[in-house]
Amino acid sequence: MFGWTGTILRVDLTKGKVTREATDPQLARDYLGARGLGGRIVSNEVDPTIDPLSPSNKLVFAPGPLTGTFAPSAGRFDVVTKGPLNGSLAGSNSGGTFGPEVKYAGYDAIIIEGKAAKPVYLWIKDDEVEIRDASAIWGHNTHDTTDLVRAETDEDAKVACIGPAGERQAPIANIMNEMHRAAGRTGVGAVMGAKNLKAVAVFGSGAVTVADPERFKAAVIKARNMILAHPVGGTGLKAYGTDVLVNILNQTGALPTRNFQDGHFPNADKIGGESLAAKVLVRPKGCFSCVISCGRVTKVDSPAYAGYGEGPEYETAWAFGADCGIDDLNAVTAANYLCNKYGIDTISMGATIACAMELFERGIITAKDTGGVQLTFGNAAAMVEMVRQVGENEGFGAKLAEGSYRLAESYGHPEYSMTCKKQEMPAYDPRGVQGIGLNYATSNRGGCHVRGYTIAIEVLQNGAVMDPHVTEGKAQLDITFQDLTAALDSAGACLFATFGIGGAELTEMLAALTGVDYTLDEFMRIGARIWNQERLWNLKAGLSKADDTLPQRLLSEPIKTGPSAGEVSHLDQMLPEYYALRGWDEQGVPTKAKLKELAL
Amino acid sequence: MAKILMIHPDKCTGCRNCELACSFVHEGQFRPGASRIQAYTWEREGISVPMMCQQCDDAACVTVCPTGAMHYSTTQENLVEWDDELCIRCKMCTIACPFGNARYDAASSSIFKCDNCGGAPECVAFCPTQALEFVDDEQQVRSRKKAYAAKFKEAFQEVR
Amino acid sequence: MIVKYFATIRDLTGETARPIEGAPRDVRELLQQLAQRYGAPFRRAVFAGDELHDQIILLVNGRNVRYLQGLATTLQPDDEVSIFPMVAGG
Fold it and tell me: What is the CATH number for A275?
């Protein structure tokens, strides 16, 4: 096989057994890798009704076929599992350099099953695989864990690990790799912690081989040049990072503010990419094979929040910033560093604190609950303290660690949790941007922007422009983005490559690399197949049309101020068309005809 | 005028495109272990530095080589070349190079050492941030020197 | 009327915002006025010949002029105009 390694590693932590199996070429062809292949494995092997934190769940680390080559900005991998936040076929995508190392070690996927009796870590050096005792490392933050594991394995080993949050199985815990990159969402860190798996360390001396080297190199050079010539992929992201989005979303009036109570934040500029570049940026950073370099190496000097690390990204700056009514960039950056070390999803963490702030201001929780902390919107010190408490499992932190849905529900007010399928919605207000609202409501893993990023067209003018306030055409827009992204994720590419290239260029690189005669049609069909596979499994897991919705606030309370004042989400105008175009019945169930068409 | 492969670590993002390009042009596959250039990243500090053969004028590898396999190129300026035919794989060069830029690869049974890709280094072509430059020796430090000179220009210029 | 600048547009203008005097009738007239003020680099960034440069995102009260009337979009005295280069993130 070319592009793929041809081998899958299976680790049974209960029995302490490691086995290898051949990658099924048909499965590889039909699901590519990463999210698609990992999803197929979970779909085949995990009972949809089990408890995600039980040993019956599986955790799959999977790079894509492009991962490990010099396809531009295509070095990514997915972690796929049954997610603890909402029980869906979930997972998260990450960059850094971990994914390529898994390919060089010789694997298309690493399947983790069962549960170790005591804390362990996995050490994979090519075909030598050991399950090692992690009792001396358990309890350490992700940065120290990385150094400790390297000291026992190889100083250049790539390490994916959980922090204290994952060890405690917090449903908003993430998996960090290379200290600063995150497989952030859906609680993948909790699943890893529930298996008593502290880290996966990989060192690979093998190769990724190419079916048609000349054709691949030509396709890569063409793709590289297109991305580098694009204003966003080529210069914008490197200069300002993703945080450059704060101002344009705010000027559009769709920057969720104070737990989605509003869509406009007057001091947004203070936490935006321009301010980040001026105040805390040290230099840009790039993931494996990346030509874009959107990563931010940053430093905070102010004594109250002093620290050094990477980030914040847009979502993080929003979650700890506008969503909490906070305009202090140093505090936001400090919260980001804490989350990276404790291993916590920044989106879910910030949004959960925002929810708690609203509960506090409404008197539903009081200073007695928060241990005396005045948890009000705008209180930056309180926000940072809450993150610390979550990481240390102290005080009110223990409740916040459950995520905003369980938090709000425990106080009898789930309506103040700004979630879809119990996962916190990201940094775009569906009332100001109709299409992203439909994506939030229909996303298989819950409140998610990135797997159907219609913002690119509705706000960012990337190739085309659609009015964010209208619903017409948005159902098809969502489907196109969802399918393209599913295929792109599964190939191992970074979403930001689409600031430059599209499905055609990805298909050409895939075909030249693997020797499979992919067409753009097949590439999009793969995406649709992966989306429907996730949907089918979710239905068996107990999710349904009833979950394809948005919080009532977004459906009936208009945005109060700013350019989108007066707007609400018109989800009801888009959802039926979405189901129909997807080939699903009125209950949102894929029809037999559709499944046959996708060979599911 | 000789051409120098110049490094600008301040521009390196740690993307390792250089390693991939090098292994691809020499081995036809992606095996960073086979790359003659390595970009090392220190995650805590957020710094990455590419390292490759410095093509020394008085090269330790040439001095110790018993067969003349490591020799100064007669066709290209500023290049220490490795001759596969003459090499007996004694690995003395790998011991002698103080920078670690010559290494023995068991998989291919050869010495890996930068050859400037015959005058058009692939690593330079693939670096997305110009952290690697293949420049005339006269202009080797021009960008760096000029960047600092520009700070004086900003401070003192009359015309804006 | 106020015009706000973001990202690299701030480098071209040397400021983050400017209140507008006079009463430009439409976006084209406003941009001509601004190009007079900020010079050739700004003009080159916002105009491609006679049209709005396709790498510019221009909002009037939060609405992208490309789904309004483009450069012919009329302006009112209390409007807020935002000028961005193409930006992105996640």
Answer: 1.10.569.10
- The CB density around residue B109, as the number of other CB atoms within 10 Å, is 10
Q: Which residues in chain A have their CB less than 8 angstroms from residue C64's CB?
A: 461, 465, 467
Taking alpha carbons only, the member of A21, A67, A63 closest to residue A44 is A21
Overall number of domains in chain A? 2
Amino acid present at A242: T
Contacting chains of B (3 CB pairs or more, <8 Å) are A
Q: Verify whether the Cβ–Cβ distance A252 to C62 is below 8 Å.
A: yes
C6, C85, C89: residue with CB nearest A314: C89
Residue A291 and residue A378 in one domain: yes
The CATH number assigned to the domain holding A131 equals 3.60.9.10
Q: How far apart are CA A227 and CA B19, in angstroms?
A: 20
User: Using CB atoms within 10 A of its CB, is residue A489 exposed (0-12), middle (13-18) or buried (19+)?
Assistant: buried
Q: Which domains does chain B have, with CATH numbers?
A: 1-52+117-160 (3.30.70.20), 57-113 (3.30.70.20)
Query: 3-state SS string over A457-472?
Result: HHCCCCCCCCCCCCCC
Last residue of a domain, one of A203, A220, A246: A203
Domain of residue A286: give its range: 255-405
Nearest to A417 by CA among A329, A513, A352, A500: A352
Among residues A379, A405, A431, the one where a domain terminates is A405
Q: Is C23 exposed, middle or buried (0-12, 13-18, 19+ CB in 10 A)?
A: exposed
Neighbors of chain C with 3 or more C-beta pairs under 8 Å: A
| Phi, psi angles (nearest 5°) of residue B69 | -60, -40
Please indicate if any CB of chain A lies within 8 Å of the CB of B13. yes
Gyration radius of chain C over CA positions: 12
Measured from the Cβ of residue A221, the count of other Cβ atoms closer than 10 Å reads 14
Question: What is the C-alpha separation between A399 and A465, in angstroms, rounded?
Answer: 42
A207, B46: Cβ pair inside 8 Å?
A: no
Question: In this structure, what is the dihedral angle of CA atoms B112, B116, B122, B124, given to the nearest 10 degrees?
Answer: 120
Distances (CA, A) of A93 to A34, A63, A249, A524: 8, 9, 24, 19
Domains and CATH numbers, chain C: 2-85 (3.10.20.30)
Contacts of B10 in chain A (CB under 8 A): 283
Question: Which one of B13, B29, B44 has the shortest CB-CB distance to A207?
Answer: B29
Cα separation values, B45 from A277, A282, A381, B126, Å:
18, 10, 26, 25
Q: In tens digits, what is the pLDDT along chain A, a chain of 600 residues?
A: 999 999 999 999 999 999 999 999 999 999 999 999 999 999 999 999 999 999 999 999 999 999 999 999 999 999 999 999 999 999 999 999 999 999 999 999 999 999 999 999 999 999 999 999 999 999 999 999 999 999 999 999 999 999 999 999 999 999 999 999 999 999 999 999 999 999 999 999 999 999 999 999 999 999 999 999 999 999 999 999 999 999 999 999 999 999 999 999 999 999 999 999 999 999 999 999 999 999 999 999 999 999 999 999 999 999 999 999 999 999 999 999 999 999 999 999 999 999 999 999 999 999 999 999 999 999 999 999 999 999 999 999 999 999 999 999 999 999 999 999 999 999 999 999 999 999 999 999 999 999 999 999 999 999 899 999 999 999 999 999 999 999 999 999 999 999 999 999 999 999 999 999 999 999 999 999 999 999 999 999 999 999 999 999 999 999 999 999 999 999 999 999 999 999 999 999 999 999 999 998
**Looking at the complex, does the CB of residue B98 fall below 8 Å from at least one CB of chain A?**
no
> Is the ipTM here above 0.90?
yes
CA distance to partner chain C, nearest, from residue A120 (Å): 34
Residues A45 and A169 reside in one and the same domain: yes
In chain B, the percentage of residues whose pLDDT exceeds 70 is 98
The DSSP letter of residue B106 is T
